[in-house]
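Protocol step 4 of 5: obtain the predicted structure for the target chain.
Materials: sequence only (see below). No template structures provided, no constraints applied. The aim of this step is simply to have a reference model before the mutagenesis design in step 5. Sequence pasted as it appears in the construct record:
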Amino acid sequence: MTDALTTTPDNTPDDAIALVFPGQGSQSPGMGKLLHANSEAARRTFEEASDLTGIDLASICFDSDADDLASTENTQPAVLTTSVAFLRAMREKLNDAGVSVRPRLFGGHSLGLFSAAVATNAISFRDSLLIIMERSRLMGSFNDDRPVGMAAIIGMDADAVRQLCEDATRGEHDRVDVANHNEAQQTVISGDVTALERAMEGARAFQAKAIRLKLKVSSHTPLHVGQAAEFAQVISEIPFADPDRPIVSNISAELLRTAAEVRAEFEAQLKSPVLWAENVRRMTREGVDTFIEVGPGHSLSRMVKRIAGEVTAVSLDDARDKPIPISVLPPRRTTP
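Step 4 output (structure tokens):
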């Protein structure tokens, strides 16, 4: 089963659309349940994922409380599966309507980049699940040995937050770093809990908001150089293909066009900050004027609107009217 939405001939002009996929932190109890009830393609996706992993992912998504769902061993396969279920349900409903969509670019926030790789056929859904299970194990085991966490700092620019992190760091085993450049005034930091809390206190002293994220992991900093090396070994045996359409790199905001580039991105991702704001700006520079968030929640579509201004940004998870999930798409995108 192909997962890309490129259902038109190669010489057909691209639509000015980007599909973007959320990452860890987008999860919430009950996610995907309405989609599951309204799409055969979504139901098959959850069944396929459960068969591959030996985990009842529908039950984890629909029945877990927030704390259980926040466990990284649950969160990562659950968010990936729900995002691919949204992707396939979107294809299903568009095909039913006789509509073809050819996105110009694909993107994702951290874990969401794996969903983007599935969507562009750079990696199979099966293989993505297998490596995400290992990724979540590596990240969870790190937290077991060394208490770590992440926090959002709102109301300070990235340079000021970087200085906060430097001031709060006491050494290699008591450090905090910038992890995600989400917006001009929203930066996520990651690291040892002791240093993280000092940085949060420092932010509040400058009248900024410091919000501890409900994630039982840290990521995207030099703290995880060792994990990144282990993960690179895991994916060295996994086949990658050239993506059908370009994927925007979290690390550099460059366009990933080859299998080798996608593989290198994933090898470096755990130790490298996510440049999300620059990802959005790169997509707009490439002519994208419509962003479709494909997965649980709507955090990315809301950030896109704050970063890029006059673009259209919608989340498939906001669909409450049939056909679900495509009823939220702009009218010009849902007519043949």
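Step 4 remarks: Strands lie at 17-21, 105-108, 148-154, 176-183, 186-192, 209-212, 247-248, 255-256, 290-293, 312-315. The domain at 147-216 is CATH 3.30.70.250 (Alpha-Beta Plaits).
Proceed to step 5.
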